[in-house]
Amino acid sequence: MFKHYTMNQVVLPLDLEIKLQENDIAYTVHELVESIPDEAFAGFLRQTGRPAYHPRMMMKVILCAYSQSVFSGRKIEALLKDSIRMMWLAQGHEPSYRTINRFRVHPEVEKLLRECFVQFRSQLVEEKLIDEEAIFIDGTKIEASANKFTFVWRKSTEKYHSKLVEKSNQMYDELLENEIIPEIERENLEELSVEEMKNIVGNLDKKVEEYDKQIEASEVGSERKQLRSERKAPKQS
């Protein structure tokens, strides 16, 4: 079961839509994700427990963020609070950066995001809306030609030129390696529990105590000086 998510309700999100430009990148991302068949999301459906955020909504906000060269989960979360296009795509939902990052690393999502990126980028190159060497999907260029661009989901990428698909996959790999994964890893490292923090502090204190004992036991001036220098590292950690 998913949390309620619809783009047809007459509430606040509709007011946000009025504020969007007709050629806003949000509409293109919306059409892209809405064109994905329902069966692609079947694996995300929960029968028990709390309703999950709808995967279409999550896909939209992530892809839209990527089109703005935003790859940090924290920054995507922030955009959901102050970006009109992101608030409209999310329809008022505000998943945390933890939820966004967990969603992104789900095996099925990884495949879908790659498929979206490859198909989206391949079609943009074919339409000459981005350069063949462009790694980022430039939202501004799409907006400039939005009235000429309609995304059509294809069951396979075989309809695109093989070299174009290969290049798009290569670009996505570079994006993963250089932008997306480092951000997720960095944010995961920040997610230390209080207990983990106490353990780290405790280990550092023990290390400092060991150096103190070695300094007291040493009678060689140069050795004591070296030990004091080494003791600074755990103190500054």
UniProtKB/TrEMBL annotation:
<feature type="domain" description="Transposase InsH N-terminal">
    <location>
        <begin position="16"/>
        <end position="104"/>
    </location>
</feature>
<feature type="region of interest" description="Disordered">
    <location>
        <begin position="218"/>
        <end position="237"/>
    </location>
</feature>
<dbReference type="Pfam" id="PF05598">
    <property type="entry name" value="DUF772"/>
</dbReference>
<dbReference type="InterPro" id="IPR008490">
    <property type="entry name" value="Transposase_InsH_N"/>
</dbReference>
<protein>
    <submittedName>
        <fullName>Transposase</fullName>
    </submittedName>
</protein>
